[in-house]
Specification:
2,3-Dihydroxybiphenyl 1,2-Dioxygenase, domain 1, 5 helices, binds zinc ion
Length: about 300
């Protein structure tokens, strides 16, 4: 299993107002802010990482909040819905909580025999809370408002919307070793047996869907997980061997990454487990300090002045 893709590592999306984003994910959804840093290419913008207590791969949703971003919309060639797994029977709790907090939810629905509650974050990002068929035993982060019997366990799945699923399915099966599990209408579920959770990619074929806009409230990229840099570089060769452009290895401080655009149009990343979020903060303080990469440390005072204060 060591040299395989181990499901999802993280998902990165675009948000508007930083405070509103922070409030929604830490309070309403009850996630832990596991890292508060800046966009390495634009240090006057935050980069937030939300996850479980340890910030485990497969639980991490990250945002670049840009105050004046224009609202985006979903379309083919994009990751269009994030699935979080929640405990069996917890959807009533979540429905009540979202009503209290004025979060619009869609009607509960079923896909591949699993019930889910669809809703959107304050920027319009599509999220599904799914009660998975098989229990998810990952340890959650709990808060005053969201106890361990309701808290999300981490990612259940990511949905990619595509004009034609075939080229993307080939990358998933031939390079990432996923298998087609089943089909439900125009939805095709792919899964890897290399890991128990965060193991699902759903492909939704929508040939007539108009193009979307990758801006506020949409996903920017989907990162798949590997154990270490050695495995990362093996996958670099496999992707390059298919004639796809792929970046060199990039140091993201908390993991090492490669990026490539899969043939269906979605930006994929492959990211390592090492070194992890505890590299520059104690596990019990994750997310409490503004962490800057070495190249911006000398600008800390100026950076802190322009970043919005969080509640
Ligand atoms: Zn990423």
């Amino acid at each position: 299993m060591e040299d395989r893709i181990l499901g999802l590592h993280h998902i990165t999306a675009i948000a508007g107002d930083a405070r509103r984003n922070h409030q929604f994910y830490t309070d309403t959804m009850g996630l832990r802010l596991v890292k508060k840093t800046v966009n390495f290419d634009d240090p006057e913008t935050y980069h937030f990482y939300y996850g479980n207590e340890a910030g485990s791969p497969g639980t991490i949703l990250t945002f670049f909040p840009w105050a004046h971003v224009r609202p985006g919309s979903i379309g083919p060639g994009m990751a269009t819905a994030i699935g979080y797994s929640v405990p069996a029977g917890s959807l009533d709790f979540w429905q009540r909580r979202f009503e209290e907090k004025k979060v619009a939810t869609g009607p509960r629905a079923e896909l591949f025999g699993e019930t889910y509650l669809p809703f959107r974050d304050p920027d319009g990002l599509h999220i599904h809370f799914v009660e998975p068929k098989t229990a998810d035993n990952r340890t959650p982060w709990s808060t005053k408002g969201v106890g361990k019997d309701e808290a999300t366990r981490g990612f259940h799945s990511i949905t990619l919307t595509l004009k034609d699923i075939k080229p993307t399915a080939e990358i998933l099966t031939e390079v990432f070793e996923y298998k087609l599990l089943s089909q439900d209408g125009n939805h095709y579920r792919f899964i890897t047996d290399a890991i128990d959770n965060s193991a699902i990619v759903d492909l939704f074929e929508a040939p007539g869907m108009p193009p979307g806009l990758n801006a506020g409230g949409t996903n920017h990229h989907v990162a798949f997980r590997v154990k270490n840099e050695e495995v990362l570089m093996k996958f670099r060769q496999k992707v390059a061997a298919r004639g796809l452009q792929i970046t060199p290895k990039i140091d993201r401080n908390y993991f090492f990454s490669l990026y490539f655009r899969e043939p269906g149009g979605v930006l994929f990343e492959i990211a390592t487990d090492n070194p992890g979020f505890a590299i520059d903060e104690n596990a019990n303080e994750l997310g409490t300090n503004l962490k800057l990469p070495a190249q911006y440390e000398s600008m800390r005072t100026e950076i802190e002045k322009v970043l919005p204060t969080l509640g």
